[in-house]
Amino acid sequence: MLEVNQVSKLYENERGVRNIDFSMSRGEIVGFLGPNGAGKTTTMRMITGYLNPTKGTIRVDGLSMADHPRKARRKIGYLPETPPLYPEMTVSSYLKFVANLRDVPVREQKQRIGEVIEKLGLQGREKQVIRGLSKGYKQRLGLAQAIVHKPDLLIMDEPTSGLDPKQIIEIRQLIRDLGENHTVLLSTHILPEVNAICNRVLIINQGRIVLDEHPEHIAGSMGESFEVRLEVKGPKEDVKRELLELPGVGSVKELERESAGMEPETALLRVVSKDRADIREAVFYRMAERGYPILEMKKESLSLEDIFLKLTTDEKEVAESGLQDEQEQEQKLEHQQPEVEDRA
């Protein structure tokens, strides 16, 4: 559905994105993560055709954005962080206006608008002026304008930004539902949102893709050791000695007790394997042989937050040059906008 091939956008200060290369299949919901200034907004603007790449190609359902920009854009729905709403218009008049812009045939507009109003839970608000809508309903309307022309690819930038917890849950469910019929690229700073919605994660840092993986496989792809949090009833020194004698165990570290109510003869340990091998079965049998009951054994793994920080924190580069805020890039993009519109 989407092919981004060796795409770069370079600026005078050498910031931008470099050789971005990824693709998306139909039905995928992909989380697009990165710190401020990493190149997320620049990449999404290039995908949606609002910005020309310095080099590389972008194809949407086989259509080149450079050669067939208008046809390619028809296949894309875009929800920027601030939805492009006109506060003086009503919900229905705004959706009709967008339908005209998106070349939805006049004979189909009434049905399409009714469908998106129902899907986004906007029933009863068709005649309401947009300025009177709550933040949550404005976000719903922003999603409605993005899908009214039935795009194949849906691109969303911070879709739950500024919403309360109830609204966040509702919008997340809407995105899941939309993912059944659309390919979705979702940019967000809320990392738990990626775990809740996405079936694939892209992380960009300093203009380059540094991770492309399914959420459940991320920890393994990072080459981390296999670690187990272990609570065993028995003398801790004896337990540690027995564990260190196992061939697959690399180290055993005592953890601080989380509760004063823990029995004195209970060992709370982190056991690290050699060569990322799964040591749980060996640990279980050794403790059983020695008569030390295991009260808890839990595999420890890096969270998405840990992985994000590990991939996007480079103290040396940050100290030398600092991260550039994407807002500075957006100011430069304003001067290039007329050229992009002329090409369309």
Automatic annotation (TrEMBL):
ABC transporter domain: residues covered: 2-231
GO MF annotation list: ATP binding; ATP hydrolysis activity
Top-rank lineage group of the source organism: Bacteria
Biased amino acid composition, Basic and acidic residues: 329-344
Membrane keyword on record: no
InterPro entries the record matches: AAA+_ATPase, ABC_transporter-like_ATP-bd, P-loop_NTPase
Residue ranges of the region described as Disordered: 316-344
Keywords per UniProt: ATP-binding, Nucleotide-binding, Transport
Family listed: Belongs to the ABC transporter superfamily.
PANTHER family noted in UniProt: ABC TRANSPORTER, ATP-BINDING PROTEIN (PTHR43335)
Protein name: Multidrug ABC transporter ATP-binding protein
Organism of provenance: Paenibacillus flagellatus
Origin organism lineage: Bacteria, Bacillati, Bacillota, Bacilli, Bacillales
